[in-house]
Amino acid sequence: MTGVSTKGIHGADHLARVPDVVPPINISATFRYDDDPDTWVKAEDGGKPLLDNYLYSRVSHPNSEQVEAIVEQITGYPAVVYSGGMPAYNAALTYYDPKTIAIGHAYHGCRGLANLWTQKFGTKQISIDDEFGGNIGQGDLVHLESPVNPWGTAIDIQAYADRAHKVGAIVLVDATFAPPPIQDPFQHGADIVLHSATKYFGGHSDLLAGLLLVKDAETKNKLVKERVLLGTNIGSLEAAFLLRSLRTFDLRVERQWRSATAIAQHLNDNIDKLSKLTKVYHSSLQTEPFVAKQLVNGHSPVLSIEVTDEATAKSIPGKLKYFIHAVSLGGVESSVHWRVLSDKAIAPNVIRISVGVENVDDLIADLDQALT
Ligand SMILES: *Cc1c(COP(=O)(O)O)cnc(C)c1O
């Protein structure tokens, strides 16, 4: 079987339209019809298939289709690309139109969008840890995030999926924190998988993109049809940047999860010596048996730490040389985030660490000096 790194570089070779080694950025918003009127199909007659027939770039364009082709090879599932993780999540909500969403710890933006649906459309919300009985059923949505933001720890997807499927609910897994090939949520009961491609697929903190992975081509086609109406296809420039990113996707992600794991182990082993550090959270520190079954090819490239108190937490970013204090994660540059700035549900002594591709010994030395 072809490896992920090979697919990242060659997965769209068959879609090349010119001999350029790097696919050109197609900035055209619209595409010329064929000269032969016999090839024209009226929209009222169903039009032409939406993909592979460039019409208007809100529908699709060469760069977005190249991205989808590569992601489909890397993941093994039909993929739909969006202009961000949030538009991808909104597309999933629109597609399933759940009357109830079960949601637990999750990215604050997704919780915010679920709240907006509650406010605007009356969508009910329960916790993923509530009993699933009369409160959730056929066609409703169970929203899981694993590994979960900001901790980088895993939850048992299969256990939640079994409970969800028993009542006929759909299981969405936000897998942003463990990009492929680290885990495959479909192997553990997911019905649809969300990635903020702004993070690891993009990897350079220079684009916004989102992905939905589904189990069959028919669902993909329906999502593409709705994407046309929602107007949330990825832009051409972002898609071209994302194609650049996919060429090093496997290299970056492997370096990032290995370094994150080394950092988590080091910090955890040295809690007694690092006077400001009180706790380390990372999937590699979890001992429950489901973790090894789920995270088959690595660990989260994100971890979180707790320090002695809020004032200390606020002082850490300024002491670090290589970790930029900024929101977002997944870039080649390491970053930290005092998480309560974005998410009031997180205690003020928590700092999230996104590990980049710098030399891991440099990163460890930097954290050591800041935490003593
Ligand atoms: C960033 C993020 C999102 C939202 O994605 P955008 O690309 O910023 O729209 C959703 N889920 C998780 C876990 C994220 O980290």
Automatic annotation (TrEMBL):
The modification N6-(pyridoxal phosphate)lysine is found at residue 199. It comes from the Eukaryota. Keywords: Pyridoxal phosphate. One of its GO terms (molecular function) is carbon-sulfur lyase activity. Its cofactor is pyridoxal 5'-phosphate. The keyword Disulfide bond does not apply. GO terms for biological process: transsulfuration. InterPro entries: Cys/Met-Metab_PyrdxlP-dep_enz, Cys_met_metab_PP, PyrdxlP-dep_Trfase, PyrdxlP-dep_Trfase_major, PyrdxlP-dep_Trfase_small. Belongs to the trans-sulfuration enzymes family. PANTHER family: CYSTATHIONINE GAMMA-SYNTHASE (AFU_ORTHOLOGUE AFUA_7G01590) (PTHR11808:SF35), TRANS-SULFURATION ENZYME FAMILY MEMBER (PTHR11808). This is Cystathionine gamma-synthase. It comes from Diutina rugosa (Yeast).
